[in-house]
Write a structure and sequence with these properties.
single chain; mainly alpha; 14 helices; 78% helix
């Protein structure tokens, strides 16, 4: 019965969107154009090279080359394995949804088990640092300090989450699996590019759909500029933060809200993560729990930094 009701709901929503597509062609055209501009100008430069590089590093088993002292420290701090640490470090460099992507890759290889996959997906959600410092800090807010503060709070919130959830999972095998490099560099490089293209195209499609849906939703209910900003930020963080930057409110509150948006990720990022872990036993609800907690922690850290340590 629940499945039937869900199917009916999906059909009704799809029919509604189709009607909106026919009635509000100019609104849909502008939202799709904007989504493609974001994809080309911001996401491809910020994400695609890192997808390729991280895939190569995983294939060459970068875990083996991380100094033992670093691995021992984070094992003690977060109770994680060396291969989980690899996912964490690559997620910092690449940005979401690489955490889910890399988790899926190592899980499929049998390098990490299910508990490890569910564990690391909670606190490895990072926005690309280039996106935070340039797109958010410089282009949207016109204030480099804001980008730095948001980046610090974004990182610290994940570190704190790692401490909170260190004893939530009991890993069945903490001993490391040192897998061998399969294939020559040429084949690994080409396959990394193919996977990167596939992922970046998937991200483009998801962002386009969610930007279109947010435009339809905000136009339908005729929200004011504040509610419209919140709705758009929940659907897709880039357009939400851009609209936030234009609001006549204190910069401190703008930084806090932007931190919350980035920590939650928006429904667009959640769908990107789901697309990476689909057809596996990795549980999405662990990712969702992590985002709710990170949103709270990141917002508080940003507020206190802005108020006491690094006024803007």
């Amino acid at each position: 019965m629940k499945k039937k009701l869900f199917n009916i709901l999906v059909i009704v929503l799809c029919c509604f969107v189709l009607i909106e597509l026919l009635i509000k062609k100019s609104l849909i055209y502008s939202s799709i154009t904007y989504a493609l501009n974001i994809w080309v100008k911001n996401l491809i430069p910020a994400l695609f090279p890192f997808f390729v590089i991280s895939d190569i590093l995983i294939n060459y088993n970068i875990t083996m080359y991380i100094p033992k002292s670093i691995k021992s420290f984070f094992k003690c701090l977060w109770g994680i394995s060396d291969n989980m640490l690899t996912i964490f470090f690559l997620s910092i460099i690449s940005g979401f949804p690489s955490n889910a992507r890399n988790t899926r890759i190592l899980y499929d290889k049998g390098v990490i088990d299910l508990d490890e996959a569910n564990h690391i997906i909670i606190f490895s959600h990072f926005s690309n640092p280039i996106f935070i410092l340039t797109t958010v800090g410089f282009f949207f807010f016109g204030n480099e300090k804001v980008g730095i503060i948001i980046l610090i709070s974004h990182y610290l919130s994940n570190f704190i989450l790692g401490c909170f959830f260190r004893k939530t999972f009991k890993h069945s095998n903490i001993n490391e699996i040192n897998y061998l490099v399969v294939g020559n560099f040429g084949s690994i490089f080409v396959n990394a590019i193919k996977k990167g293209i596939e992922t970046i195209l998937l991200i483009c499609g998801i962002i386009t759909i969610f930007l279109m849906l947010s435009s339809i939703f905000t136009n339908l209910f005729d929200f004011n500029i504040y509610n419209s900003m919140l709705v758009k930020g929940i659907f897709e963080i880039t357009i939400g933060i851009e609209q936030l930057s234009k609001l006549p409110i204190n910069m401190v509150y703008k930084a806090v809200i932007a931190s919350c948006f980035l920590a939650f990720g928006g429904l667009s990022v959640h769908m990107q993560v789901i697309s990476q872990i689909v057809d596996t036993d990795i549980k999405y609800h662990y990712f969702l729990i992590g985002r709710i907690w990170q949103m709270i922690i990141s917002g508080l850290i940003t507020y206190f930094i802005c108020l006491f340590l690094f006024p803007i």
